Amino acid sequence: MPPCPPRWWCSGGHLDSKRTNADNTLSTTLAPGADDNASGVAALSEALRVLLANGFVPDRTVKFMGYAAEEVGLLGSGDIAAAHLAAGTNVVGVMQFDMTDYNGSIEDIVFISDNTNAALTAFVADLVETYQPELQWTTTACGYACSDHASWHNRGYPAVFPFEARFGQHNQTIHTANDTLATLGNATDHALKFAKVAVSFAVEAGSGSSCSVNGDCDDGLFCNGAETCDPVFGCQAGSNPCGSGTCDEANDTCVGSSPVLWVSFKADTAVPGVGTVANEDVVGHDEGSGIWSLVFDGSDVGLGALEIDGLAALPSGELLLSFTTAATISGISVDDSDVVRFTPSSLGAATAGSFSMYFDGSDVGLTTNGEDVDAIAIAADGRLIVSVLDAFSANGASGVDEDLFIFTGTLGTTTSGSFALFFDGSDVGLDTSTNEDLDAAALTDAGQLLFSTLGSFSVTGLAGDNEDVGQFTGTFGSTTTGSFTMRRDLSTLGIATSADVGELHLVE
Question: Are both 278 and 232 inside the same structural domain?
Fold first, then answer.
């Protein structure tokens, strides 16, 4: 075995269990502790068994630890972390396994966000996406030093803590006589996911960085122009994927990539491989690879209190956005009939850029509550297309919320021009008296209309729900004719049926 470089990785879990009385004092009776924490120790033990059985020899020191006395104050892990600190040991990452077998949330893996290291958490989340792409993950907060990871964190060591469920949705029988395998359904399927995380962590972290300089990191998968070599985590790619295409890194462009469907949701929604996104965010689904990614993080640019209800992209790469409520964004006053332009300097998990006014709806007659912009799209000739919340009557056109209107005129802070009916939903079976209102719209390069509705919809040849994306092919204008097909049923792509599409756009 070659000598290990002076970097150490640790995975651990506590060996003790406890049982408490009604007044939260310690009981002297047996504490079975199947989930808290036999499940964590079992995940670690299984990972170690698999690594040894396959002859894995790490390039770095990888430790597996069982801690004593976690339940009475993190005593064992505290002593061990303090000893490593006193010895000057370069522990570059610690993973905690505490409670892994109760699947209480819609996500499979939930990372604890407090007393942990954000970069290490992102590294392990990437391992989940790479080796268990079928799983969903998100983050949650304990609100206190809830396990042994805090012992390491408090001594300056990076820690990560993958947990069984969102905090509060975890196993409620812990510290009682009912924390048994029977309570867990006599199954260990959920814990197995964590054992696989432990294996991937040991292999990837223990194998060391595969790069030595930034130039080693042209992986052919990401077009971001900013890939770097981290001495601990290896190649760190940006967040704008080429999907199923390949990357010309020198020119920072994607070659041969498949369409990516951009989606925003009306409420917090769990997205496979991304985690839970809010209604100011945009995610993308690569229709070739099936991979979801974060496209736009609204909270990064001050949109945390807003909900996106209009989304499109210009050929320049700028985004067009509208919102459900009035707000001041980067010094610009906008209301719910306006569209703003976002010029990005970066997208993805580190979204940054600037805003400017693109379309002032009140300038051209969108003044009632029913004329709030509810969907936007860009026509092939670059003109803006809008749908509104209710009845529409402005500058040359009238209609309802199943319709789309195309705008011809001058854009910007002083908007002027006229509207014409672009898509008459009632002509093709969208009911004006139900929740078949157009809630999201986009046009493909081939001229097809992608759409989602406020509620369920049923038209000739197609029925769907508000998490579905339908596709209309036909003739547009005051007399609309054509046919419908399903573009994407998002429930088949890992999105809950309770989710509600807020807006969409197709990148081709």
Answer: no
Provide the CA 502 distance to its chain's centre, in angstroms.
15
CB atoms within 10 A of CB 398: 12
Domain count, the chain: 3
The percent of residues above 90 in pLDDT, for the chain, comes to 43
Q: What does the alpha-carbon distance between residue 490 and residue 350 come to, in Å, rounded to a whole number?
A: 25
Give CA–CA dist 437/370, Å, rounded: 12
- Cα–Cα distance, 111 to 166 (Å, whole number): 8
Pick from 206, 240, 272: which residue ends a domain? Answer: 206
Task: DSSP for 70-88, please give it.
Answer: -TTTSHHHHHHHHHHHHHT
> Quick one: 271 and 231 in the same domain?
no
What's the token pair of residue 484?
Answer: 């419908």
Residue 248 is part of which domain span? 214-255
Clarify whether residues 231 and 182 are in a common domain.
no
Nearest to 47 by CA among 35, 56, 36: 56
Rounded CA gap, 139 and 74, in Å? 22
Average confidence (pLDDT) over 464-468: 85
User: What per-residue confidence (pLDDT) applies to 1?
Assistant: 25
Which tens digits make up the pLDDT trace of 373-391?
889 999 988 899 988 877 7
Instruction: Verify that 354 and 240 share a domain, yes or no.
Output: no
Residue type, 342: F
150 and 286 both lie in a single domain: no
Peptide bond into 186 cis (omega under 30): no
β-pair partners for 355 = 342
How far from the centroid of its chain's Cα atoms is residue 285's Cα?
A: 11
Q: How would residue 238 be classed by pLDDT, with cut points 50, 70 and 90?
A: very low
- The token duo for 242 is 């080429």
Reduced to 3 states, what is the DSSP secondary structure of residue 127?
helix
User: pLDDT digit string (tens) for 102-123?
Assistant: 999 999 999 998 889 888 898 8
Distances (CA, A) of 266 to 282, 397, 449, 450, 499: 11, 28, 21, 18, 8
Q: Are residues 361 and 232 in the same domain?
A: no
**Domain end among 173, 206, 239:** 206
User: Helix 189-206 to helix 39-53 angle, to the nearest 10 degrees?
Assistant: 50
Q: What is the pTM of this model?
A: 0.54
Runs of H (alpha helix) within 144-256: 149-153, 189-206
- Which residue shows structure tokens 């993308």? 284
